[in-house]
Amino acid sequence: MKRFAALFTALDQTTKTNAKVDALAAYFTAAPEDDKLWTIALLSGRRPKRTVVATRLREWAADRAGLPLWLFEECYPIVGDLAETMALILPDATRDSDRSLTHWIGEIRALAKLDDPEKRARILDAWDQLPKIERFVFNKLITGGFRMGVSQKLMTRALSRATGIDEPDLAHRLMGDWQPDSTSFESLILTHDPEADLSKPYPFYLAYQLDGGPATLDAPPGDWAAERKWDGIRGQLILRGGNHYLWSRGEELMTDRFPELARLIDHVPPGTVLDGEVLAWKDGAPLPFNALQKRIGRKTVPKALLRDAPVILYAYDLLEWDGQDIRARPFDDRRGLLEDVASGVPEDMPLRLSPLVSFDDWDRLAKIRDGSREHMSEGIMLKRRDSPYRDGRKRGDWWKWKVDPLTIDAVMIYAQQGHGRRANLFTDFTFAVWDGDQLVPFTKAYSGLTDAEFRKITAWVRKNTLERYGPVRQVTPQHVFEIAFEGIQESPRHKSGVALRFPRMSRWRHDKPLSEANTLADLKDMLAAYG
Amino acid sequence: MAESLLSFTDRGIYCAAGDFFIDPWRPVDRALITHGHADHSRPGMGRYLATGAAAPVMRHRLGDIAIDTIAFGERRQINDVIVSFHPAGHVPGSAQIRVEHRGEVWVVSGDYKTTPDGLSEPFEPVRCHAFISECTFGLPVFKWAPEDDVRAELNDWWRRNAADGKTSIIGAYALGKAQRLLTSVDPGIGPILTHGAVENTNTVMRHQGIALPDTLRVTPDMDPKAQKGALVVAPPSALGTPWARRFGPSSTAFASGWMAMRGVRRRRAADRGFVISDHADWPGLNAAIAETGAERIFVTHGYTSIFRRWLESQGYDAAIVETEYEGESLDAAEPEDAA
Ligand SMILES: [Zn+2]
Ligand SMILES: [Zn+2]
To answer: Which intervals hold domain ATP-dependent DNA ligase family profile (chain A) (predicted)?
Structure first.
């Protein structure tokens, strides 16, 4: 664990990308094979399952430190991290050991079968032989909250440097349904056999935000294909060997959540991989995101929901055709083949082609973009016609040109402290609009301000607290913020009757007095127009 | 009930029997001062009394003041009470103030640190009936590592940066923390540069006979890039400013007890955080309080409500006193030399 803890420390102590890649590459060169595999697993979100409930851990840590539980509970929100709080209060280790990362993960997983007193004994024993940072890492693993601040992209770059294998190739090898138990570093990374895993997806190509509008692009309109940007779930549908697999962008297998897509097996030839958007769809048009939301997070789908919110794959790219990886071919070619595939699928099947929108110049496209919300769309996607299908987020060939967010001016009425990096700062706020002379809360937001602004508002909150409700402080209604959001929908669960999508603080309206904040009627008008 | 020996007023801690204040925050006639930090030693007092080692910095900061000095351990009568000053281990010259009246003894801790740092006069516990204690780091998550470990870490960081051709810039309070860093590092690694605020305090301390390694004041006409592999000691507020950018490629660090928390360390956007504090940690606070033998404990600046509850669970009669002292502040907006 010392080597892994040293890696963790090196990554934690720098914000510089190159230094992170250097540290990782050095680790991937020197560490034992099984530790490398586990590190890759951890960095790609394959964390070991929790085997001890947090409540027990807190009790055992407080007890071992000779502290009452209430004192532990006071420390936890201040530190902001359970694993760290435990690591800090525990007495120093009395022994030193250097077992591997794989050993400790094995220990943690083995706890699953033990009863509480046995778990306690094992964990106290571990705490007693792990010095500070190793103990913190162990606690992170055991609480299931392990993150290292390294993207999969950086990890792939480091791994590429350590193994000499190309990044895109590695990115593909790392995809899919593998677990450290089901493979080895050797067979996953070094000797990779695509036939071995029919469900393995390709890395998704992600678009960059086009901030300056299309006039800032390096090529004329004719070089670009445009589509609407859909507000669903990005999905990769794989048809191979008589089976189908649906992957999310977060590399989650979603096949069972959307059983209606199984019907496509009879109409799309095996050896086909489609990229598109999963949308709730009815009567020839997408339903609001709200409808799809009901399907997310449901592992089994009740019949009524299948009927009320049926989904389709709105396809916009073809990655594999006739069993061949065609990602290197130009977009126009792939699109042509995609249209062929789609034309063989009957109309009542859950597969449709996301249409291209035609335009001659950027002004025309800007007008089309203005109508996005009426089409249940978030804006325009631009794809370079001669570009390959790349992996990850790469600048240059795919751009998203989103419509401007909706905004509303609201009054801050509650504040709550953040945690982790933002411990000691007030970062979570509740906002309200006027309803007559009452302020009605309608949304929370916790992002969009600079650190300096958060510090400023924190100092203000401390001096302007009216009432405390546990961690929440009611503050003097005084500050007006512009809240930006992507969508609005009806919500009986909220006092205001509406819920926003992706709300964030876009501006601190120092210039606006309290009385000029928006009203509940304004929100209801937005709901009628865009909900 | 008779008036207690020390009382808490809106001007500060007051002793009626001696008619003086301790570390007052509003102008009063007579002030006994624990140490020279700005939140304890304020301008506008008629007369000041402080230790001989604390006085030079106070004169430097407050200008022409009427100040009388007292040696550690010396007993002096003021009106009906006897006062004496005892090392607090916080910064050079810092004291706890003992007040005795008809056999009743109170001690005001000021800011204190129980572990020796090689620079400040080491903390001495003082027996008393009532103890007014700071509790800046009054949570069990704060446990300082041995001084030698921290020194090794610090020198490692500097040495590695020097080898990589980088300047090491560390943010630390101009009074106390900065000098402690200077006496902790290995001057053989490279030149040590100082921000003006730090160097001014260095000059005062060298004058009073405190040994510090050689340092070089950063001035506008200095070519900072000529100082290869230097360590720069500056107030925390100077980090991230154009002043700090003149040194070219650099690694930055803060030295503070708050650096014990990873979240704070990451928020401060420095490359490194060294857990170096001039205040007592959890074991230090508990040991100090136990050693006073006091039954009544008043806690000021820090995690007061949590610490009070803890003390009560340990059998003390504990209360919170609201003061205007500031603990170890981390945010740039605060006065740089307040601690
Ligand atoms: Zn203080
Ligand atoms: Zn101080």
So the answer is: 304-435
Q: What's the gap in Å between the CA of B141 and the closest CA on chain A?
A: 5
Question: Alpha-carbon distance A422 to B297, whole Å?
Answer: 32
Q: How close, in Å, is residue B51 to chain A by CA atoms?
A: 35
ipTM: 0.92
The pTM is what?
0.75
Cβ neighbours of B306 in A, within 8 Å = 71, 74
Domain identity same for A376 and A410? no
A51 and A128 both lie in a single domain: yes
Pick the CATH number of B147-274 from 3.40.50.10890, 3.40.50.1240, 3.50.50.60, 3.60.10.10: 3.40.50.10890
Whether A378 and A245 map to the same domain: the answer is yes
Q: Mutating which of B154, B157, B266 best tests the A interface, going by the most A Cβ atoms within 10 A?
A: B266
- DSSP letters of A457-519? HHHHHHHSEEEEETTEEEE-S--EEEEEESEEEE-TTSTTSEEEES-EEEEE-TT--GGGS-B
Class of domain B6-141+278-321: alpha beta
Please identify which residue in the block is written with the tokens 């990850």.
A392
Nearest beta carbon to residue A13 from set B272, B309, B313: B272
Lowest mean pLDDT among A281-290, B5-14, B129-138: A281-290
Output the CA B143–ligand 1 centroid distance in Å: 19
Task: Clarify whether residues A222 and A371 are in a common domain.
Answer: yes
Task: For residue A88, report the distance from its CA to the centre of ligand 2, in Å.
Answer: 25
CATH number at residue A211: 3.30.470.30
CB contact under 8 A, A75 and B139: yes
Q: What are the structural domain ranges in chain B? A: 6-141+278-321, 147-274
Give the CATH number of the domain where residue A450 resides: 2.40.50.140
Looking at the 3D structure of chain A, how many domains does it have? 3
pLDDT in tens, A297-347: 777 788 888 888 999 999 999 999 999 999 999 999 999 999 999 999 998
- B residues 276-315 lying closer than 8 A (beta carbon) to A: 303, 306, 309-310, 313
Query: Is A139 among the domain residues?
Result: yes
Q: CA–CA distance from A323 to each of A133, A241, A319, A320 (Å)? A: 48, 10, 10, 6
Contact B261 A68 (CB under 8 A): no
The answer to whether position A266 is within a domain reads: yes
Q: In angstroms, what is the span from residue B335 Cα to ligand 2's centroid?
A: 12
Nearest to B78 by CA among B18, B164, B161: B18
B145-167 confidence digits (pLDDT tens): 999 999 999 999 999 999 999 99
Are A85 and A222 part of one and the same domain?
no
Residue type, A471: P
Contact B39, B134 (CB under 8 A): no
What is the spatial order of strands in the sheet that A377-384 belongs to?
A208-209, A398-402, A377-384, A224-230, A356-357
Distance CA(A387)–CA(A228), nearest Å, equals: 19
Cα–Cα distance, A463 to A458 (Å, whole number): 9
